[in-house]
Amino acid sequence: MPSLPVHLLAAQMLCERLGVSDKPSFLLGSIAPDSVNMKGFADKETRYKAHIRSTDYDIWKKQLSDFYTENAQAFSDCADYLKGYVFHCITDIAWDESVQPGLFTFLQKDASLTREQITKLKWEELFRFNSLLVKEELFTVGVELLKLAQARDIAGITAQQISDYRDYAVNDYKDKIAAEMPYFLKMEHVNICAQRTFELYRQIIQ
């Protein structure tokens, strides 16, 4: 899974192509599922519920399509918020499919490393990558737009949780930014992820 800046940049890159009219709501939706992890990774059940997730990616994609269809009426007055929420989960899949395999190959120079150790190294690399992404104009503009959005309860997450996470993203994200430059990740990887997200979004959201 990518970090918040990757999610926000991908959403910024694609919102026009996806016909988004309420950009602040779409952007808030695009970071909302990770609000369950603001105080450290939530337990698996909570994370999977928030991300409408399955370990089987084909099932995960089907669940996202069903979730969107089943909730479209309830969110008819803020459709772009729901779109953004599903977009976040699709971006997770796109990252896992298009970027993470190469990142894991780069990180696993020592064959004795466990999956848990590789995952730790992955997040350390993402924190280094964040130091570049938060300087991008698309990110800084996105952060300003987030301030205008109104959170709503969704997928078992309360509006308050999402609002708190939004405020954290806007005002205090420093603990997720490392001072060093990334060893592997480049802006090109965000572009690759965004393109794959667009392809999947078109398949999943009919």
| Whole-number total of structural domains | 1
Number of strands: 0
Shape verdict:
globular
N-to-C span: 24 Å
Task: Describe the main β-sheet briefly.
Answer: none
Structural class label? mainly alpha
**Helicity, in percent?**
55-70%
pLDDT < 50 runs, ≥5 residues: none
Instruction: Write the H/E string, N to C.
Output: HHHHHHHHHH
Number of helices: 10
Q: Mean of the pLDDT scores?
A: 96
Radius of gyration: 16 Å
Q: Roughly what fraction of the amino acids lie in strands?
A: under 5%
Kindly describe this structure.
The chain has 206 residues and is mainly α. The protein has one domain. Helices cover 62% and strands 0% of the residues. The chain has 10 helices and no strands. The protein has helices at 4-14, 23-29, 44-50, 57-71, 79-98, 100-107, 115-133, 137-146, 159-171, 187-204. Helix 1 (4-14) packs across helix 10, helix 2 crosses helix 5 (79-98) and helix 4 runs antiparallel to helix 5. The longest helix has 20 residues, at 79-98. The mean pLDDT is 96.
